[in-house]
Amino acid sequence: MLSKLLIPLLLVHQITADGCGVCQPESNTACHSENTFSICMDGKATADIIPCPKDFYCTDGKFTCYENEQPICKPKANDEVTQPPTTTEKVWEPVDFCTSAGDGEYANKDDPTCKTKIYCYLGGTGKYQYEIYPCGTKKPYFDEALGKCAAQKPEHCIDS
C-alpha cells in the first residue's frame, strides 16, 4: 500500500523538480529561467516576466534573486530551456497608465508588497506625470478596491 502511494509522489516530484514556473510560497514568485521570474497571483504565475539583476539567480528564497546561489529553474539535460509564458500584454508603464487613468492615487503595479501608491497628475508641460509614495505606518498597504491605503494587507500582496 505504501509503495502505491510513494510512486505517484515521486513521479510528481520529478515532473516539477526543475522548479520552472512553480510558484514559491516564501516569495510568491515563479522562476521561468535561471535569471527571470514573475509574480504569482492566486497560486498562478503571471505573464509579466521580470529579470533578476546582473549576476543574480532566481531562487526559492524570500527575495527571489540572489547573487552566488543555485537557481531553482535550470536548463534541462538536453539544453532545452523552459520558455516563459508568451503574452501580448504590454509591460505596465506608469506614464501611460496615468495618461489613461487621469489624476488620482492608484496601486503601484511594480510593487507586489502593496506598500506604495502611484500619484498621477497633469504636469505643467501638459503631459501626465507620476510620483510614487509609501503608505503610512498605520495604514501600510494600498488597497486597489478602496483606492487608498489601508491597515489590512490585500490578499494578492506579498510580504516584504
UniProtKB/TrEMBL annotation:
Q: Which UniProt keywords apply?
A: Signal
Q: Where is the signal peptide?
A: 1-17
Specify the superkingdom: Eukaryota
Q: What is this protein called?
A: CG42494
Organism annotation: Drosophila busckii
